[in-house]
Design a protein that fits this description.
Largest sheet: 2 strands, antiparallel
Structural class: mainly alpha
Oligomer: single chain
Strand order of the largest sheet: 1-2
């Protein structure tokens, strides 16, 4: 059976990348034109042949990721998928291709080549789902999971992921698998969650592969196998999936399941950042600040912290403030909006923090050998005590 991965859920600001305490520096952060949406939505409702049903053995994919894990532009062109708003509008409105309607919805959702319009995007997704397009149903599920254009409803999100999976969407199966793992929108089903992560990964969902890697990494649903987890992250990263590159980078930085290699970790953090993963950008800042994988460069560190902070990674905003940079109120607003992957990223950061026998306190990785957190979070030693072997010991110097 292939290694399982679990899907990303709602995000929660965390240190850019949790880093071992005791090392220098505390790791922190880790087409033009207006589209006639009304007309397009009407066209999207026209029934278009739905995707074929998945194999009965096909497991569900992980939830909470807006963008599909589909391959890069070259692969899209090969399958005839549109890449610009103008192309998608034509294919959706004239050719009545539901996949193009969904692609147009994603451009509208992210404001790429067209004015951002979350409500119009949701309408396109919903119409495509009604026409039995699996990716359209998954996108509706994401909207319900995150509350985009609709009231947040996790049970509804799960139902749409289930329908998406049934219609043959590997990413939809990955999303459903994550819901079953985390108990989102209904009861947990660990056994099926693993099967869905495995099968969706096999079917080509990089969301599913990432989820599978996390499952083997954490060892909660299957026996822990860090080497297998690293292999899965590597294969998924080779398909340009930023989150898998980030997880693999953390493995190389910390020596988890692979031989520690700061230079390789830095290269992977850069790949993740280039692909738009803001936690990876924060990690590049950490690496420049601490000189891990390259000579220290404070200016570069602050530049990457700012990029990460502007992209919504809260820990990078903290690093920027603490290490001498400044960020605008606009950055703060973007930070508060959050990043769709922050909750999973926090889980990843906590894993690596505790792997180094540090403590996860208030969303940060801290040393448990300090007088402020001696042995556990918030355990303060008195002025006449010292933290020795993670226990407050009297020194005989009480006032």
């Amino acid at each position: 059976m292939q290694p399982p991965v679990y899907a990303a859920g709602p995000a929660m600001p965390q240190p850019a990348v949790a880093r071992p305490a005791g090392k220098r520096g505390r790791g922190v952060a880790i087409v033009a034109g207006v589209v006639a949406i009304g007309a397009i939505v009407a066209v999207a409702v026209v029934a278009g042949g739905g995707s074929k049903k998945p194999d009965s053995a096909m497991p569900a994919a992980s939830a909470g990721v807006v963008a599909s894990s589909a391959a890069p532009a070259a692969a899209m062109a090969k399958t005839g998928a549109c890449t610009t708003a103008a192309e998608c509008e034509t294919a959706c409105k004239t050719d009545k291709k539901q996949s193009a309607c969904v692609a147009l919805g994603k451009l509208l959702l992210n404001g790429k080549g067209v004015t951002k319009d979350v409500a119009a995007a949701h309408a396109l997704f919903a119409a495509a789902c009604d026409a039995n397009d699996g990716e359209g149903c998954r996108s509706v599920g994401v909207d319900f999971e995150h509350g985009d254009a609709v009231a947040k409803d996790l049970a509804a999100a799960r139902r749409y992921y289930d329908k998406s999976c049934t219609l043959g969407s590997a990413d939809g199966c990955a999303a459903l698998g994550f819901c079953l793992d985390a108990g989102i929108g209904g009861p947990k089903d660990p056994a099926r969650a693993v099967k869905l992560a495995d099968s969706s990964c096999t079917a080509g969902s990089q969301i599913g592969c990432r989820n599978l890697g996390v499952i083997y990494r954490d060892g909660k649903l299957v026996p822990k196998d860090l080497a297998k987890s690293a292999q899965i992250f590597q294969a998924s990263c080779d398909h340009a999936y930023a989150s898998s590159c980030l997880n693999l980078a953390l493995f190389y930085r910390d020596g988890t399941g692979v031989t520690k290699d700061y230079a390789k970790a830095f290269g992977l953090f850069e790949r993740g950042c280039d692909a738009g993963n803001m936690q990876s950008c924060g990690a590049v800042g950490d690496a420049y600040y601490d000189g891990q994988g390259m000579p220290p460069n404070r200016g570069q560190a602050l530049a990457f912290y700012k990029k990460s902070c502007d992209g919504g990674w809260a820990a990078a905003c903290e690093a920027l403030a603490e290490r001498g940079g400044e960020h605008s109120s606009g950055s703060t607003a973007r930070r508060s909006s959050g990043n769709n992957n922050n909750e999973q990223a926090e889980r990843d950061a906590q894993f690596h923090c505790e792997l180094e026998h540090n403590g996860w306190c208030g969303h940060r990785c801290v040393s448990l050998d300090s007088s402020q957190n001696c042995g556990r979070c918030g355990n303060y030693c008195n002025s006449y005590q010292k933290c020795i072997n993670r226990t407050c010991e009297n020194t005989g110097n009480a006032d």
